[in-house]
Write a structure and sequence with these properties.
It catalyses: Hydrolysis of terminal non-reducing alpha-L-arabinofuranoside residues in alpha-L-arabinosides. Homohexamer; trimer of dimers. The chain has ten helices and 26 strands. The strands form six sheets. The protein has an eight-stranded parallel barrel with strand order 3-4-7-8-9-10-11-13, surrounded by six helices. It has a seven-stranded antiparallel β-sheet with strand order 2-16-19-20-26-22-23, with helices on one face. α5 links the parallel β8 and β9. It binds alpha-L-arabinofuranose. The site of alpha-L-arabinofuranose (AHR) has 11 residues, from loops.
């Protein structure tokens, strides 16, 4: 190593400190009928790379590289006004509808069968949402019948007639979306929503007992009903549902970049609060079931730049919230993923919102190229390497003062251990903006010595650097060759300011 950093953060990595197993559904994403996520995002029949079904081949390739294993669909706010029947059957007789959520014209050229066909070809698990805004029990159970019953009933036979001979077999279902939000079509109270969700869920499970259900938690932790909403909803739904949802979007506010870089602290407290609330309901109900969480919308989103849906002109496929992400945003996304990993004991599902164009890690131009945003890289590399058991690591090192969250560790980190191969993956963010940060991780209690396989880093002299159509690879992960395991069995690395790293270690006695 060359220059010694001024400050060092220390952790201990011990195989006995397992806190949970990474559910692969933690690396989910989200496709909503919003802006250009579907049309000219994943789907563009006139594009030179389009497949026989009209889906873009270049975007499909990037989705594969991103490594997402689960995709939520079709909304989002969109689902609360959606008639799923509009999106099935012959495409040329599907109605053009006014979508109230985003004041857009929905052509319905992509619907249930097209999306689920795409998901199957992509090798991703679908997570479907039903409309509990303008519709209810009957439309929800009909959709499950359409998707999951092999045949011999009106809705399943209709699917077969539409060309989908085999059932789609969708296992994961969201009972509505953000029903606590005044912006939501059909916004309601926790008790009313909870009763409807329980009854819709019951009917859906009567159609297919193998499905899993997600009830809506709060739209974010700042909602006035936060906490009470979860308590009341869970009181109504506890026995019927398998997961409670969380949503959160982060952005730099009032120039507080230190606070933005510490967004994981907010996510961490948010998850802990919901775990406590769910466990309170469990205790009151004397239930043995421990509710799992589905963080099915999270990302960096510059919401302050969004004019609000009422200000939008009525258009088909408008450009909505196509945020361009920077190195700083990538560090925050990487850090939020670490927070999710550190709650792997309760958070089973998480969806980066969204997948393409609409605050997506992938961007595409109509008739043009597609490229990876900066945030693509921490997601793809975490999804690829952070598998197995999450190990508890306590950081001891310098703190950073933030306006929003008080003092936070300069080092944000998470470690996973692959029990099969013994491979360790250490993820690390230096939240500091000025100085390099030393990382020293004592590898304790392992039978083998470890070696560094690879250290990849996102960092840049300009923390606002971004990837664009003209310069799509301005920010890419680059290898760091100086990182090593010392003779004393300590991983030693230097993390530049506002950087994200993945450090892969393998036992020396394994190839
Ligand atoms: O992802 C964009 C929107 O954010 C979703 O439609 C909604 O659920 C959330 O408020």
């Amino acid at each position: 190593m060359t220059d010694q950093p001024a400050a060092t953060a220390r952790v201990t990595i011990d195989p006995d400190f397992g806190l949970g197993t990474v559910d692969p559904r933690l690396y989910g994403t989200f496709v909503e009928h919003m802006g250009r996520c579907v049309y000219t995002g994943i789907y563009e029949p006139a594009h030179s790379t389009a497949d026989a079904h009209g889906f873009r081949g270049d975007v499909a390739e990037l989705v594969r590289e991103l490594g997402t294993g689960l995709v939520r669909y079709p909304g989002g706010n969109f689902v609360s006004g959606y008639h799923w029947e509009d999106g099935v059957g012959p495409a040329d007789s599907r109605p053009r509808r006014l979508d109230l959520a985003w004041r857009s014209i929905e052509t319905n050229q992509v619907g249930t069968d097209e999306f689920l066909g795409w998901a199957r070809r992509q090798g991703v698990e679908p997570m479907m949402a039903v409309n509990l805004g303008t519709r209810g029990i009957d439309a929800a159970r009909a959709l499950v019948e359409y998707c999951n019953i092999p045949g011999g009933t009106a809705w399943s036979d209709l699917r077969v007639r539409h060309g989908a001979r085999d059932p789609h077999d969708v296992k994961l279902w969201c009972l509505g979306n953000e029903m606590d939000g005044p912006w939501q079509t059909g916004h309601t109270t926790a008790v009313e929503y909870g009763r409807l969700a329980a009854q819709a869920g019951k009917a859906m499970r009567q159609v297919d007992p193998s499905i899993e259900l997600v009830a809506c938690g709060s739209s974010n932790a700042e909602m006035p009903t936060f906490g009470e909403w979860e308590r009341e909803v869970l009181h109504e739904t506890y026995d019927e549902v398998d997961y409670l949802s969380l949503h959160a979007y982060y952005e730099e506010k009032d120039g507080d970049r230190a606070g933005f870089l510490a967004s994981g602290a907010q996510m961490d407290a948010y998850i802990s609060d919901i775990v406590a609330t769910a466990d309170h309901v469990r205790a009151v109900r004397r239930s043995r079931k421990r509710m799992k969480l589905s963080f099915d919308e999270w990302n960096v989103w510059y919401q302050s730049r969004f004019p609000g849906e009422r200000a939008l002109p009525l258009e088909e496929t408008p450009r909505l919230i196509e945020d361009t992400y920077s190195v700083t945003d990538a560090a925050v996304v990487g850090s939020l993923l670490m927070t999710l990993l550190r709650h792997a004991d309760r958070v089973a599902i998480a969806c980066l919102a969204q997948l393409v164009n609409v605050i997506g890690p992938i961007r595409s131009e109509p008739g043009g190229p597609s490229w990876r945003q900066t945030t693509f890289h921490p997601f793809a590399l975490t999804a690829k390497y952070a598998r197995g058991t999450v190990l508890r690591t306590e950081v001891s090192g310098p703190l950073i003062e933030t306006r929003q969250y008080g003092p936070v560790d300069a080092l944000d980190t998470a470690t996973t251990l692959d029990p099969e191969t013994g491979a360790l993956t250490v993820l690390a963010v230096n939240r500091g903006q000025e100085h390099d940060l030393g990382l020293r991780a004592a590898l304790r209690g392992f039978a083998s010595r470890y070696r560094v396989v690879e250290h990849l880093m996102i960092a840049d002299a300009d923390p606002d650097a971004a990837n664009t159509e003209e310069n799509p690879d301005r920010v890419t992960p680059r290898p760091v060759r100086e990182t090593r395991v010392t003779g004393d069995g300590e991983l030693e690395a230097v993390l530049p300011p506002v950087s994200w790293s993945v450090i892969r270690l393998a036992p020396e006695d394994r190839a």
